[in-house]
Amino acid sequence: MIKKLTLNLVFLILAFLNATSQDPDSKTDWWGDIDGYINQQDKVTLSLVNEALRIYPPSIEESLSRKMALVLIDNVMHEEKAPFRPAVQEFFHSRIAGAIKEIKSTKVEKGAMIWKMYDHTWIVKTASVTMAFDLQRGIPRIPEFITGKDKMKELINVVDILFISHFHGDHADSWVAEQFIDQNKPVITPPGVFESLPIYAKIDHPERIALKVQSIKLPGKDLKLSVVINPGHQSEKILNNVYIVTTPEGLTFSHTGDQSYEPDFEWIDKIGDNFKVDVLFVNSWYFQTGFRTGTGFRPKLIIPGHENELGHTIDHREPFWLNNNRLGNRDSQPWFNMAWGEKYYFVR
After folding, report:
1. Looking at the chain, which runs of residues are DSSP E strands?
2. For burial by CB atoms within 10 Å, which of 43, 68, 215, 244 has the most?
């Protein structure tokens, strides 16, 4: 009797191990495993997204296939548990790792190569300089949704300067800033960012004066950037630098951070009269994104960012499809969407 019970127990254990070790890609029955089912569906969906994005890169003229791929991303990310899904984490890690590999190896002779990273992070590379805007590693409260330090160091090693718009954790990463400081590379922030940390004294805080051109030296390259640090805000009290940066090649890029304060239109409305902005990286969620902001800057190209920020609640994980309402007609104001890890070659 004891032998029979023992054998039955062994068979049950083996059956359980077989069921739990089954390859999810070939599994045909997901009843009773809702989380497993959703994760597998995300994996299948994001695999198709990767393929579509490879075939249909960013362009003013978006194909139907690319539009569908971006909406598929929206659909996956607008699920409560999305940042905790292994398939979503793998999508994040693989796309960021791919971008870092490209940034390290890409040589730019003319124009600029632009990469969109997670959240509202941008890397801009020209023949003379590589710049980072709001570079951060991921979602601090979710360790599985953070780019590893070794991988991030690979990127920081080839970037010359870091611009941080404001103190929020989805834009400012103290560990990233420390790595730049350790390499004697400039970190530019509004006053108060990382104020309690030892690195604060080594961070540059240029004057926040609208439309005033200042010069920032890059010690490692013996060259200077022309920079405007416009005194922006996220709401009334949060200081938010709105940068306008001109490279030695004469290309001008602007990053708005989380700019969203109505009185600041006093100087926003004058940007286009004073500067020829080539590319504007604008926060997609601000309701004035495509209208008054675009009219004020008058850039040659707008690329929105901050979509699908998984640290936000679902209603504030801005979808790609909503950019159409906010940015409007592409004929009068050229713009397009970019997904994490994508690149775009800009030539004036």
Report:
1. 112-116, 122-125, 130-133, 161-163, 187-188, 213-218, 223-234, 238-246, 252-255, 279-283, 301-305, 343-346
2. 244
- Cβ proximity of 269 and 306 under 8 Å: no
Report the C-alpha gap between 297 and 99 in whole angstroms: 28
Identify the residue whose tokens are 């708005």: 256
CB atoms within 10 A of CB 47: 14
* End-to-end Cα, the chain, rounded Å: 84
List, in order of start, the domains of the chain with CATH numbers: 34-346 (3.60.15.10)
Question: Residues near 75 by Cβ (< 8 Å), separated by ≥ 6?
Answer: 45
Does this model's pTM top 0.85? yes
User: Whose CA is closest to 37, among 95, 89, 81, 98?
Assistant: 81
Pairing of the two strands 213-218 and 223-234: antiparallel
- Of 282, 284, 341, nearest to 316 (Cα)? 284
Give backbone dihedrals phi and psi of 54, rounded to 5 degrees, phi first: -65, -40
Looking at the DSSP bridge assignments, the partners of residue 240 are: 232
**In whole angstroms, what is the distance from residue 317 CA to residue 296 CA?**
26
Give pLDDT tens digits for 132-147.
Answer: 999 999 999 999 999 9
Alpha-carbon 225 to chain mean position? 23
3-state SS assignment for residue 69:
helix
What single-letter DSSP state applies at residue 1?
-
Give bridge partners of residue 246 from the DSSP assignment: 226, 252
Residue type, 311: G
Contact of 227 with 243, CB cutoff 8 Å:
yes
% of residues, the chain, pLDDT over 70: 93
Distance CA 155, CA 230 (A): 27
Encode pLDDT of 9-64 as tens digits. Answer: 444 444 444 445 678 898 989 999 999 999 999 999 999 999 999 999 999 999 99
Q: Check: CB of residue 256 under 8 Å from CB of residue 230.
A: no
